Amino acid sequence: MKAKPLLEALAKKLKTTSQASLASALGVSVMTLHNWKSKNKSLTAGQIANAISKSKVAAVKTSQFQTIQPIVEFYSIDPCKTRNGGSWQILETGSAVNSYRNGLRSALEHANGVYIFYDSRGKALYAGKAKDQSLWKEMNLAFNRDRELQKINLTHHPDRNQEFRPGHEKLRQPKRTQLELSNLAGYFSAYKIEYGMIDDLEALLVRGFANDLLNAKMETFAHQRIGT
Question: For the packed helices 19-26 and 3-14, what is the interaxial angle rounded to 10 degrees?
Answer without folding.
Answer: 90
